[in-house]
Amino acid sequence: MQRFILTREESIHTLLSFIAVRLSLSRKKAKRLLDNRRVFVNKKRTWIASYQLKEGDSVEVHEEGQMSSPSQRSAILFQDNHYLIISKPAHIATNGPKSLECELRVSLQNNHIQAVHRLDKDTSGAVIFALNKGAFEQMKALFKKNLVKKAYRVIVRGAVGKKTFTLDAPVRGQKAITHVTLLKGGKGASLLEVSTATGRTHQIRIHLAAAGHPVAGEMEYDRTPLERRLMRQIPRQMLHAYLLSFEHPYTRETISITAPAPADFDRCLKLLGLEEPIPARN
């Protein structure tokens, strides 16, 4: 982390030009830091290149998060003739170009592999992939009927006062329901288990931010100052898709899969004094 206090002479700069000059970077590389949400102005995450700085402003640049860990490989949690359940690392898209879906198609030599649902690029955890079109349609039908149980482990800012509660504010005009359970509370952060009765894009992140407990590492829905330096060093949103459970469309067996939290999530728990207090559920 590098921190600068703006002098009167430097206050002529926009945020982009200041970062480029002070870190001796090209404008392209400086813009990448902004795009990756690694810059704070007066403890607020700021990514507007044209942001006009003022004398006395504090600018922090976090090129590498304190809690970063080496890239983790995806791991197979379940596999049969119809489905794969993969533990997706953070920092890779579920599908699309250069995605986990593409990697699986190449490594397993099967161009029919298709993600049935998605996680955000910077969210880790369990994802279901179908091995053929029929399996995809069968599993998609379960999702549409809300017959796939999903649970997430989430580290949020602030002390959560309630043991259980439900958030039901609409998300982008659509009905959205999020159920929350407090697993462990701390002075400045809390560990939650969250499940959703609806599947709106970014629903958990939007609901928790609106409730005053944004996900630690949130880079889009929280613009409040991060007073604790530790919170400014978290390199991604601490949201992990922990549990998937459903009745297999072909075998009728109950499949219940848990994805172990990745190293950066566990390290964040430790640094915030939130080591998981209960065993994983089956």
Describe the structure.
This protein is an alpha+beta fold and about 280 residues long. The protein has two domains: about 1-60, Roll (Structural Genomics Hypothetical 15.5 Kd Protein In mrcA-pckA Intergenic Region, Chain A); about 75-270, Pseudouridine synthase. The protein contains seven helices and 14 strands. It has helices spanning about 15-20, 25-35, 100-105, 135-145, 205-210, 230, 265-270; strands at about 1-5, 40, 45, 60, 75-80, 85-90, 115, 125-130, 150-155, 165, 180-185, 190-195, 240-245, 255-260. The strands form two sheets. Strands 5, 6, 7, 8, 9, 10, 11, 12, 13 and 14 form a ten-stranded mixed β-sheet that branches. A four-stranded antiparallel β-sheet has the order 1-4-2-3, with no helix packed on it. A hairpin with a 2-residue loop joins strand 2 and strand 3. Helix 1 (about 15-20) packs across helix 2. The chain is globular, with a radius of gyration of 21 Å.
What characteristics describe this protein?
282 residues, alpha+beta, Structural Genomics Hypothetical 15.5 Kd Protein In mrcA-pckA Intergenic Region, Chain A, 2 domains
* Residue-averaged pLDDT: 92
CATH architecture descriptor text of the largest domain = 2-Layer Sandwich
- Biggest sheet details: 10 strands, mixed
- By DSSP (H or I, 4+ residues per run), the number of helices equals 7
C-alpha end-to-end distance: 40 Å
Give the name of the CATH superfamily of the largest domain: Pseudouridine synthase
- The first-level CATH class of the largest domain is given as Alpha Beta
Q: What percentage of the residues does DSSP assign to strands (E)?
A: 25-35%
How many domains would you count in the coordinates?
2
Give the fraction of residues assigned to helices: 10-25%
- CATH fold title of the largest domain: Pseudouridine synthase
Return residue spans where pLDDT drops below 50 for at least 5 consecutive residues.
none
Q: Give the radius of gyration.
A: 21 Å
Shape assignment? globular
Structural class: alpha+beta
Total DSSP E strands: 14
Family: Belongs to the pseudouridine synthase RluA family.
Domain RNA-binding S4: 14-75
Keywords: Isomerase, RNA-binding
Pfam families: PseudoU_synth_2, S4
